[in-house]
Amino acid sequence: MSTSEIDRQWTTRLRKRTFGKLPPEKMLPDTQPSYVSSWIYVFGVATISSLVVVIATGCVLAIFGPAWWHTSNVGHFVNSMHLWSVEIFFFSMVIHLWGKYFMAAWRGGRALTWITGMVLFLCSIVTALTGYVSQSNFDSQWISTQAKDAINGSGGGAFFNLLNGGQMLMWHIVLMPLILVLLVGVHVVLVRIKGVVPPIEENAGAVQ
Amino acid sequence: MSKKAFRPDVDAPEWKGGHSPYDIIKEGSIAIAVVLILTLILAVVFGSPDDPAITLKSWSTTAPVDFATTALSELNGTSGTATYGAPYNSQNSSASQQLGPLKLEYWIGVHIPINTAKVFVINPLKALPGQPALDKDLAVFQNASASAKTAWLNNYTKAAANMKFLNNQVVVNASDAGPVPLMINDLTQMARSGALDEALLTGDSFYTTDYTDSLLFISDGSYLGQVAQADHLTGSQWGMMNETGSWPGQAWLWLYTFWYQVSPMNSSSNGDVEVLAIMLLLTVGLTLMPFIPGLRSIPRKSKVYRIIWREHYQNQTKD
């Protein structure tokens, strides 16, 4: 097989493209620019870490089924962990978002990183909503019957029925986690490719 | 060839300064451990709420008059669900929410058809076994002319303003109401026995995970709202970001629920879709911030970044 034939292979092309943009030292760096020195940077990793705990506790709840936590003390405790990790997740993500906003973190060709972050925030809200209506208790009754009007008003209620417990549970434990994990992956890879945004240049002219 | 001008809100200078050691795997591991410990502590100290769901049985037992009144509204077609429009019933454009000329709800149409009289009242009553008097009255009701049904329902509805629940019976002093009094009373008895919960849930299939019918019926009554009000969960109480008891709710929805407190959305019949549109607009604006001149300059002009990178700027001054 000739070299040019190997170069044309999909696998070769993908490998070259991937590792060209994201060599191992960028994916798993052992140094970072000296300006990365603030507590605000903690909240990005805290968001991902709490997502790990959210998914782990969600997996335990999934093993025993949606009604388990109503009847088991252990189940209720795992549900409590799920709830509090979600609270930490959103707390961290909102601070991370506003931190990045005030850094104007889209500069230097990082707009797509900012956009994937915003889409992640929106997807997280949808995931939380489907979780709240999947609790199978009074909370889910009230939230689903109230929130349905906004969804219906947009025309989406015909396809995304908050009152359909089965549909909401599947969205919550299959579709939305898949989308979230995929988007987190894209977001992190973009951060690693472009690096952490440098401080705003104060000496340059303020040309928009 | 002229060099393109540097745009401080779009461009970032290439970093030519120093680097410091960074162990990304160690940082991630420590972060997961810290979050796990924090989660464990919060779960042990505060736990989580789990108020039991309201059933048609618990509702009709606790508030039988509210249940029977709601059942009547399902039968005479005046309930919230009966008059909702799309996606549940009647292609009635005035029943659907709209945003200016956009009638998305109406245009998408009925996809979850619900005839409240049939689904919530007549079909469940038909499923009751060994009720010859009820079977006879149901046949009379269903075979009656539209004008006769309307007259019975109107007569009963007028008298139902003084409805009472005495000796386990729905009491309404209505005359010429045909089979309606028996139907409403029997549906109330059926609900109090728990049989209506079962009938609405498993009416079409043994295996079911769709609670649309039961939830719409329950939400048509006043009882669900009263329980929510006591738990500060209603719209005017900023309920969207609250939780039962004192637990934190979806605090991240504070801006969403804020718009429900503001005129005209707080009294508009299209309030839900108006608030949704506002939030959609704001979200798109924030998402596309990098491309909006003026707005993308706010971070630079606010100088908050100087707090974030204060060490960097201090070092710059020293140099």
Notes on the structure:
- The complex is a heterodimer of chains A (208) and B (319).
- Chain A is mainly α and 208 residues long.
- Among the domains of chain A are: 41-91; 104-197, Up-down Bundle (Cytochrome Bc1 Complex, Chain C), CATH 1.20.810.10.
- Chain A is 71% helix and 1% strand.
- Chain A is built from nine helices and one strand.
- Chain A has helices at residues 3-8, 10-21, 24-27, 42-64, 68-71, 73-102, 111-132, 138-153, 165-194; one strand at 31-33.
- Chain A is globular.
- Chain A starts with a helix and ends in a 14-residue tail after the last helix.
- The model of chain A has no long low-confidence stretch (mean pLDDT 94).
- Chain B has helices at 24-46, 56-62, 64-76, 104-108, 116-126, 132-143, 146-159, 180-193, 195-202, 212-220, 223-230, 254-259, 271-287, 298-302, 305-308, 310-318; strands at 19-21, 164-166, 169-171.
- Chain B is mainly alpha-helical and 319 residues long.
- Chain B contains 16 helices and three strands.
- In chain B, 52% of the residues lie in helices and 3% in strands.
- In chain B, α2 (56-62) crosses α3 (64-76), α2 crosses α8 and α3 (64-76) packs antiparallel against α7 (146-159).
- Chain B has a two-stranded antiparallel ribbon.
- Chain B has a domain at 56-224.
- In chain B, a hairpin with a 2-residue loop joins β2 (164-166) and β3 (169-171).
- Classes of the chains: A mainly alpha (208), B mainly alpha (319).
- At the A-B interface, β1, α4, α6, α7 and α8 of A face β1, α1, α4, α10 and α11 of B.
- β1 (31-33) of chain A pairs antiparallel with β1 of chain B.
**Rounded radius of gyration of chain B (Å):** 29 Å
Task: Return the CATH architecture of one domain in chain A.
Answer: Up-down Bundle
Number of distinct helices of chain B: 16
Q: Which structural class matches the secondary elements of chain B?
A: mainly alpha
Tell me which protein chains meet in the greatest interface and how many residues each side has.
A-B, 95 and 106 residues
Specify the helix fraction band of chain A: over 70%
